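Mods, move this if it's the wrong board.
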Amino acid sequence: QVQLVESGGGLVQAGGSLRLSCAASGRTFSSRAMGWFRQAPGKEREFVAQISRSGGTTYYADSVKGRFTISRDNTKNSVYLQMNSLKAEDTAVYYCAEGKFSITTVLHRAEWEYDSWGQGTQVTVSS
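Not the wrong board. Structure tokens:
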């Protein structure tokens, strides 16, 4: 099973940027799609972005489209989430997860389609 560790969270003012990183170890990283999810206080965890195993296909939640960019570097066993134009409503704990589906170029946004979750990193956007 792969181990995932997120980093890069913090406190930022509205309109600012953060770059989250997720480092993977324990299994061949490049064989799976990766996803980012987030959970705000009092809310359910929600899908943010997905990237295919090669990095050539990406999907985003409507709420972050045009502001967030998911990317990966398979040589470094890492996936990233560049977050720009941050809003107060982006405040949440952000998690990366490994997809357990085989067709990685198709959108998969349900939590049950992912496993090997990281511990999460807190992002707080002040207005």
